[in-house]
Amino acid sequence: MAPSRNYYKAQIVGWSLYILASTGVFIMSGDDITIGAIGGIYLVFALGLTVTHFYRSILINLGWLNLDLFRLVPRVLAACILLAIAFHFAYIHIGNLIFGWTLKFLWNDQNLFAWGMLFFIWNLIYFAYIFFQRYRKEEIKNLKLEAARNEYELRRLRDQMNPHFIFNAMNTIRALIEEDPKKAKKAVTQLSNVLRSSLQTGKQEFIELKKELQIVHDYLEIEKARYEERLTINMDIDDSTLSIQIPPLILQTIVENCIKHGIAKLPKGGAILVQTIRHSDHVEINVLNDGEYIPSPEATSSLGLENTRNRLDLSFGKNAWLTIGNTDSGSVKTHIHLPISTT
User: Fold this and answer.
1) CA angle 10, 115, 34 (to 5 degrees)
2) What domains sit in the chain, N to C, each tagged with a CATH number?
3) Is this prediction's pTM over 0.70?
4) Which residues pair with 276 in a beta bridge?
C-alpha cells in the first residue's frame, strides 16, 4: 500500500506540532538555549519521521492492518517498546556524535517511557485513521451494493408487471372476439396504445401521474368494452397532482386488481373511482371499487399488491405505503400514500 499524500502531510504536521510543543516547553523551563538543545529537538523530528515511516512499512508487510483488535493490541504494545528502545539508542548515539553530548544509554532512563508513549500515540492516530478510512470505504461499498440490489429488484418487479398486465388484457380481448368483433378490434387498438405507453415508461424509474392516468384510461376503455353497463368509471383528479412523480404502472396495477378481484366477481358489475388528493407534503391516491376485500392466502392473488408495496418501499422507503380494506359504504378502498417529490 503506497503512502498517500495525506499520509505525508499528517507525518510532517504531526511531528512539527511535537517540535513546536517541545520548543515551547523548553523555553518556558528557563534553560539556556544552546545548539545542542535545539539540535536535540529537531533530531527527534528527523528520527521520528524516519522510524515511524519504516515502522509503517513493516506493519503493512506483516499484515497487521488486517488483524482484529484482540490480536493487534499486544503487537502494537510490543512494537512501542521496541521502537522506544531503538529510538532512544539512535537518539543518544547520533546526539553524542553530532552535538558532542556525553549521554549514555540507561534502561531506567525516563525518556524511554516518554518515547514509548509518543509511539503509542502515533499508533493510536494511525490505526484510527486507517480504520476510519476502511469504514468509509465499506459504507460506500455497501451503499453501492444496496443501490444495485434495489435497481435490480425494481427492474425485476417492473418486468413482472408487463406479462401480468398483458395476460389479463388479452383475456379481455379474447372474450370480446366472439361477443362483438367490432369492439374486439377497437380493444386491440386501445391495447396497442396501452402497450406503447407502458413500453415507453416501463423502463423509467418515475413518470408523471398525468402519463400514468392516460395508461389507466386506455386500460379501462378496454375493460369498458367488455363489461359495458356493468362497469362505471369515475375520476376525481386534483389537477395539482398531475405533475407528481410516481413509479410507472403503479396505479394501473391497482385498477387492474379492482377489475379482476372486484368488478368481475359481481353479477351486476359495479363502479370504480380513482381519486387524488394533494396535501402539503404528500399525495393520496385512492381507488375505490364495489365489492368486498377478503385477504387470500394464495400468493398469486396478491401478486399485484405485494409487487406495488415492494416498489413503493424501494422507491421511497418508509415515506410511502399502500393499504387496502373495506369501507363502511360497502366498497373496497386501496390507498396509496406518496411523498411529494420532484425526482
Assistant:
1) 90
2) 5-108 (no CATH), 157-339 (3.30.565.10)
3) no
4) 285
Q: Are strands 270-278 and 282-290 parallel, antiparallel or unpaired?
A: antiparallel
Q: What is the pLDDT along the chain (343 residues), one digit of tens a residue?
A: 566 788 889 999 999 998 898 888 878 877 777 888 888 889 999 999 999 999 999 999 999 988 888 999 999 999 999 999 999 999 999 999 998 888 888 888 888 999 999 999 999 999 998 899 888 888 887 777 666 566 655 555 555 555 556 776 677 788 778 877 887 888 888 888 777 776 666 567 788 999 899 889 888 888 887 788 899 999 999 999 999 999 888 898 899 889 888 898 898 899 999 999 999 889 999 999 999 888 766 544 466 788 788 888 888 888 999 999 999 888 999 999 999 864 4
Q: Is 270 helix (H, G, I), strand (E, B) or coil?
A: strand
In which residue are the cell numbers 494511525 written? Answer: 126
- Lookup: cell for 238: 386534483
